Predict the structure.
Amino acid sequence: MIVGRRSRPLYRVGLVLAIAVLLIWSLAPIYWILVTSLKTEKEIYAYPPTAWPETFTLMQYGIVFGRTRFPLFLRNSMMVAIGTTIAAVVIGTLAAYAITRMRFVGRAIVARAIVAAYLLPPALLFIPLFLVLQQFGVIDSLTGLVLAYLTFTVPFCTWMLIGYLRTVPTDLDEAARIDGANRMQVLIHVLVPVAAPGLVVVALFAFTQAWNEFLYALIFTYSEAARTITSGLVGMMMGDVFIWGQVMAACAIAIAPVLVIYLAAQKYLVEGLTAGSVK
Amino acid sequence: MRSRLAALLLGLGLMAGPVEAADLTVWGLQSFNQDADAFIGEQVAAFGKSKGINAEYVVVPANVINDRLAAAFQAGAPPDAFMHVSQKSQFYIGRGLTVSLDDVLADIRKVPGGIFDVHLKTGISGGQSHALPLEVDISPMFVRTDLVAEVGMKVPTTWDELRAVSKAIQAKHPQMGALGMTVSTSADAEGQIRNLIWSYGGTVMAADGKTIVFDSPETRAAYQWLADVFLTDRIIPRAALTWDDSGNNVAYQTGRSAIVFNPPSIYYWLVANDPKTLANTVMAAIPRGPGPKGVVGNTVGSWMWHVTKASKRPDLAKDWLRWFYEPGRYRATIEKVGGRWVPIYPAMIDQIPLFSANPAFANLKALAQEGFVDGHAGPPNELAGKVFDANVLTKVMQKILVDKTAVGDAVAWGQKEIETLAKSN
């Protein structure tokens, strides 16, 4: 009997060990966030540190929800991330369709310009972008943030969808066109259903990018009314005073939506990634 | 499809909410206390109400204020008034972005007992005050008296005593890093290395504010002391090389260090969380340096108010400052901050029980009155701020402690760096 490499005990042990190391590497910070958020302030500073709370408390969550503006920041983050995702996916889909299916002068340049736009570091862009948003009168507003985030999510979504749509045979479009469909109908009724896994992946990445964004949120919003989670968290670090319990409780809450969305869309995510959207 | 797109755009539009510009915008640095930020915000709103205008207070974290101000000035829409740390005042004043506040200063000088004059220096340009201190920022030495008593010694008053006490505590408690001195390039480290150098009689600039005299026997002696305690005695935690500003707080609060230099934020944490350690803590003066040039090299800073030249309502912004400095309201603010800010009115230290009735604060008035501001021994200027921002003094320290560069060579390197900064100034 031939014993495959994968069934050798040593190989399996090595594999399990490697996975365990990767899991610890990935999950340890999340574990520490959760555990710290359940400790008292005194225990957080205990030395040696405790790996498990000696006294469980939900006090930090109580403070975060009851005595800070964190619920408002959470709502703002959600609105900005959803708004950005919808707009980025719609614009990105239209742009990707145009680039992959239509013939026009400068098509290749436009495609490359989209990548170039995505690669520009935000630190270079924030002052010019501030000027533009100031002119539009949308500084310190959620709309301003959505517009700012579209500067990197639209190129990202477009580029990803270009790759995906190129894997979809043009025969499908042509058949629909022969049946009398116009371009928009082809896109909505033929390509979008076929590209659904790709769209889900793109939407997830756009949502995550908008949810996690920090620099623009910090610079373009002033008032608490327009602050998102990332910029709101900074308010819990006051000079050399870090309110670790509250920071960790807020982080634990901030992780939850992205985690839930990824778990719910796991099937599409794998399908979308393997089907070519990010090849 | 069109209707869906329209709905999307409408949805995004609705998210904007009203974009209503305030009549007066005041930017404040985030204090160390959320209640205090809210209180100042209420004061700005009350001021606006008294004037019949819409006044807005925006709390800005210290680590982003430079970026936000850069963007706002660039866009031609800076706040009417803003706070910043004293080390940065000359940057904005030197670029002509602020207006003179002499008239406001004249008013607040009339308060019985006057104000701490030393803190005005950082806001002066061309003989006029362009920035006014709104508090006094001091960093006393926190000492665990129980551990000092355990080794049969007293709270150190000189740097040599500090070394001896720390060594004794370290010998008794080998798991500790007895002296929690920040030796990274953080802002705390910048302040602490200045404490040491000033104490030994070293300075960056001469009294004329132009001649760079960093490379002196006194400066070299100060760095040598640090090299000895870090490399030879090993009484400073190794991790202190990479501490941020919270590193020494954590070291003291967890009991890993017996002595640290820090603003009173540690005190407030102890009040709230650890009464036992609090009872065994004293906030002492910075140790005195050796020899005839030795002094108590306590560095002091302030948070400063500025009124921008681009403001459409500079007089209103100045009125806000008068409102803020009115002794009754000012005292309420100081009390709200909980002592993290020392008042600019010396008499108020004696009036507020938080300071006057608290033995832990016994040294505050002297520390506030006798401190050196950045730029010592010359007047504060933009170069002093540049030296601070470029971390020259802490980089010299790290060359000695990490790269094991000879003290003389590292200090000579620092002198050249400062001279280069001066040429580009």
Notes: The radius of gyration of chain B is 23 Å. Chain B touches chain A through 51 residues (CB under 8 Å).
